[in-house]
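dumping the sequnces here before i forget
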Amino acid sequence: MPLLRVRDLVKTYQVGDVAVRALRGVTLEVGSGEFVAVVGPSGSGKSTFMHILGCLDRPTSGEYWLEDRDVSRLNDDELSAIRNRQIGFVFQGFNLLSRTSAVENVELPLLYGAGKVSAAERRRRALAALEAVGLADRAEHHPNQLSGGQQQRVAIARALLNNPSMLFADEPTGNLDSRTSVEVMDIFQRLQVQRGITIVLITHEQQVAEYGSRIIAFKDGQIVSDQTNERQRVAVGELALLPTG
Amino acid sequence: MSVWSSFRIALRALARNKLQTALTTIGMTIGVATVLTMIALGTGAEAAIQQQVRAAGMNLIVVTAGNYKTKTEDDGGGVVDHQAELVPSPQSPVPEVVLAGFHPEDDPMEKHDHPTARQRLGDTEAGLGAAATLTPADAEAIRDISGVQFVSEGIHENVHAAAGDKRWFTRMHGGDVELPSIRRSWTFTSGRFFTAREQSRRAAVVVLGAFAAEKLFGDANPVGRQVMLFKQPFEVVGVVGSGSWMVAPSAGDDQFDAVYVPFTTIHQLLNLSKLTDITITAASTGEVTRVSKDVTALLRARHGIGMKDPDDFTVATQARQSLARGGLRPDVARAVVGNVGGLEKVTLEQLGRTLDRATKTMTALLGSIAAVSLIVGGIGIMNIMLLSVTERTREIGIRRAVGARGRDVLRQFLVEAVALSVIGGLAGIVLGAVASGIIGQMLRWSTSLSSSSVALSFAVAAGVGVFFGYYPARQASRLDPIESLRYE
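..and the predicted 3d for all of it:
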């Protein structure tokens, strides 16, 4: 039973008088626990694809089934609830709230959860999540006091706070140097292996895509190739070889 | 998300731009302060006027001994020429004087073209209606009439009061212990009124009017000191002053330029047994007419006056008299009675309605001032919130991505707008309280800052926040999550 299934997914934008067809019929299944890297040049529709999978956007036509629910028919509130509980996002630009401490950024998903969570409990869980990404000592730092890699780890901690089943990452290493990029990939691979989280990684770099267990190539709004990655890079091994600092 | 955490987020967002927040709230602050000050001054004035009207004795009935009509206005057409009584006799060519049955000056229905004795000398000295017909027993009987609240016997004399080497010519009023209850605008600046015990024992005690006290003792406290009245030593037990800002004690005002002693003491001192007048208050202003009729009937019965004979006393209930005599400032009296002619015929209800109309006009004026300032303040908030939504588009996108619903975003911005207006409102309440206090001090104008007006101002501030914050908040909630995330 696949975790998510999409069929004939079409997305058309109206830009002025011109209709831009971002997705032109995408059909795909992703199983639970996969690490899918979506690769393609800019404008190939991969970001749009991720937005629809991440319930941030709705397709113009086609079906999107997430764990037996037809997500394309849900209303805004229901999509928000899915984003809150089942999906975590990591963005290229980190997207942390400025002038807000790391721990408060991490707490954010709990503010919009269904059940009432006390402030103390929120903080306790946020601190635990920060500790898991190795930033327990930076909890009170504001984003502008953290390095890029640290900011991205805060963002990952936030994405994981509600124990989602899926993690969507849109060019997560785009703003990072090579070593911190590998560190982030290491975190993703651990999440996949240790916690069985399904990861969808959007990137335009083939080398980054090779950390995934499956590589899907996009071009002009369609899938041009979809294959299991036989030569998956292992981040933890590469880290050992890279010079520290 | 709970309202409380929304509120905390809102406060933190506002704290980031302190100057901007302060400038935005100034509009609300001024608006709410204006509202509060106006309400305070308005209700203060209203309370003062109502207190004045009550203090002036709208429920007052004065029974005066004797019966004479107050001088009527000369309408200019009623001059009777007594020469015209010279009629020619048919028997004789010489005109013969036909004497009227009485001296023309004695005809009470006539108008005269020369001053009458009464006009020359005044009522009392002319002996007209000056008969001392009221007794303390009459007053006691009146106390038993239903609807009567307070009764005070009255006897009045001019007196040379002396304290040490200071002398002051003033009025001496003999009264009953209930007199302070009738004169509601009185306050005792020191000491007390005389007691029932002192009254029954005919004690030589005196209460000084504030003006007389100042003349006799200057700034010193006269309580416990001695005043000589009719060459007899009296002990001062209290000083009575005006409790109303509108009435300042002044020379010859007959109220505070006066001394008060028990009427029983005057009776003994001057060897008298009658009263000049009896002052009555009705428990309810609506019953004044009924009570005065009962008083008339009672006194006629007690004085054994036949059906067709006139009263030997006068019952006065006119509002105008009490308004004019009760120490109401002339301009206020005019404002109260307005251009209502023939006030004698005006019932208390009508007067109440006039007051009510004046109050409504005032309220409408204050309301429009308040509305304008609050709208201006509200627009300021709306403007800053729209700006804030644009500035924080990316934040909205982030919150949406981690699961905030449209209504969560709406609430966040709405709470922020309300927090902004409430902060302004609270500052306005403080400013308004201070301002109305200062204005009250400067104008010696009683301002009343009720908790309900504070609550109202607060509610209005919050309401303005909701009203003007809703549109920007809805704009924020309708932003597309993806576009907000991409917004730079």
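Chain B touches chain A at residues 1-2, 5, 16, 394-395, 397-408, 481-482, 485 (CB under 8 Å).
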